[in-house]
Amino acid sequence: MTDFLTASGYDDGDIDTNRSANPHMNELIASRYSRRQTLRGGLSAMTAAVFGGMLLTGCDDDEGGDTVTVGASGTGTVTAGRTVTLTGTTSGAVASSVAWTQVSGPTVTLANAATQTASFTAPGVATATPLVFRFTANSSDGTPSIADTTVTVQPAVLGFTAVPKSLADVVSVPEGYAVTVLYRLGDPIASSVAAYANDGTDVNFAQRAGDHHDGMSYFGLAATGNTPDANSSSRGLLVMNHENITESYLHPNGPTNLANGPRPAAEAIKEIEAHGVSVIEVSRSTAGAWTYNQASALNRRITPNTPMSFSGPARGTPVLRTRQSPDGTTGRGTINNCANGTMPWHTYLTCEENWAGYFRRANGDVAARVAAGRGKENASLARYGIGPSSSAAGRLGNYLWSTATPTDASSTVFARWNANVVADAPTDGTGDFSHEPFQLGWVVEIDPFDPASTPRKRTALGRMNHEGCEIGRTIAGVKPAFYMGDDAQNEYLYKFVSATPWSAADANATNRLSIGDRYLDSGTLYVAKLNADGSGQWLPLVFGQNGLTASNATYPFADQADVLVNTRLAADVLGATRMDRPEWTAVNPATGEMYLTLTNNSSRTTTGTNAVDAANPRAYTDPKVDGRGPSTGNVNGHVIRLREAGDTSEATSFTWDIYAFGAGSDLDPTNINLSGLDATNDFSSPDGLWFGLNSNATGQGTPVMWIQTDDGSYTDVTNCMMLAAIPGRVGDGGTRSVTSTLNGTATVTTRIGKAPGATLRRFLVGPKQCEITGIHSTPDGRSVFVNIQHPGEGGSPTAISSSWPASQAGTVATPSRPRSATIVITKTDGGLIGL
């Protein structure tokens, strides 16, 4: 569209019919503009919008040599996330100033707006959306000439060619993208700590990067100082979990005395410290290179030995009392931290997942608890995976840490992993560590901007194998929701709704953990029940309701704290839907719909307790060609999604469908490959899940969703991977009947979304024997951080099975011990990742 402002040269016939001596308007105009035209000799301008190689040409509609004319014509079309260049041109005398401004449409940031060539990034939109821009050129006396041009933005499309499946020992990304290795196992985070030797001799992991990098968040830092800046994409804090360890590579010749102990103290302390969380400062140079600051005062390792405090309804409850915490208000550390949560008030949630396996417990401890008047605890411990063992020695605990002898006789750093009741100790648990298992299984909040702060375990969110904790959309005056999966076979999906409505001012508060108190310590915890008709309910886990009472025959609940400590038992009573390993949750920032990865379930079958149902409809056999034989159950997993009633986080009901089923593209399309996956997007065992941030086009309109895999069933074909998707909406597909023939025959009807087709595409394939997990980005969406966990986990110091990340630079002549690491992915043209 073209607008014209003309200073002279307009002719509407013989208008001078008034013969009086009074001055005529034309004379005034001629007097007013004659000096300007003499100086300028005429000025004309036109504008064009350039999208890649497409030029929108302007049109010159000058009606006379003395006319100031500005022209623009044509309508350009571009997809969200692409860079748009606006070009204005002038003719005649030199303009005193020029500028581009936006007239209408979603607001964008114009770069170089005071020049003839400006640019912007097309925003994310849900439907075709016009944006109008105005080019203004001012004459020497300030008279403006203007022209408008329209750019129509279409919804986002994936802008890369799918990466093929691969078994190579390298991270593969699409053409036009670059990978930088940023932060590796053992990297020092204090100036006094030496570089990592990577030969098993390194110590002091309390000041080094831990192992098994997992869930991760980026927090923007101000250009100077240590305060948050939500818009900073060049300096920030990267906070990540270290879920576990690859024990064999941490010691010179692997671990010693693994049979029954005792473990050497130096080995045990190294392994303990390699768990937990890292907080590191990272920055991007003007040339675009990312590095971490080894000497930053904000760097911090949080390990299983770091002091913690409890908050919320279970604080001080009897089962939290231990020798170390007689009043049950404090604890030590966090472990097996898997996924995470990024809070809008600039704190980090880390989630304790497979913590139960670290504890030692003798079979005789069952009777000892009964004798101590604590027999009820046996049901709880068994439900969480620390029940009696078939082994005569009972449960020894992962890595046998409890068998190590500390150098300081007063230290309990190893004894706390022994969960047995100690003879002659007080029966309330304050003289031993028999209650230590109840101190784990929580969501922990960390303030990354305050290295001296004490992390808080948020008991209102329940105790389970927390995979992650994803906050939904925050809307002023509405109580926010937090979605969580319990990562184990046949466990449940949960939602916590805060008692406090959201206030946008809290996003900028300086007392960040106190804001966490406000939203995370009081509210209602719910568990999901998914019905066959595509509906669902959130069932409240509230003491005194729905059988959660002291008279419950299965487990007598004492109070709300007891319900929260024993969340699984409470969910059992309510009849929640047993799911195929609920892992990461992610919320679409544009629609509020929640997505959940169901990684796999080897116990899913056609009949019995774990029989197929509408939400978990597959039980089948997946052949493997690597000599390990077939896998059975829901082998390849799926991604389910739900839409809250009324699109509000406070809803107690929802609708659901299955976004996509994992499967090899060669498997039965009728009952297994239900999503019609092909060689560009077939995947197995979805795990990590994340949407682009709504601060850039990847999280606006039709946001990009990232799916990461942790697979053991498709690894004869490809290493683990990461895919990009632009998903639709709940209900965009239809119903399907699925027949399973594993241990019988069963047919169920399920809700399945529209086949993803080209809107789902493989973006990355990792190195050998790794898991792809953990993802976040800078606010501008131009740098994406991804974690590569346990490459070469099947090897040993004498039989190294991967040399990554050393192999990322090229062929390695001498095998190098593999290291979990964080990578940064950037686009060589500086564009948004994925679009």
Automatic annotation (TrEMBL):
Give the InterPro entries listed for this entry.
PhoX (IPR008557)
Residue ranges for the region (Disordered) are 1-21, 303-333, 616-636, 792-815
Any coiled-coil ranges, and where?
A: none
What Pfam families does the database record attribute to this sequence? K319L-like_PKD, PhoX
Q: Where is the composition biased (Polar residues)?
A: 322-333, 798-815
Q: What is this protein called?
A: PhoX family phosphatase
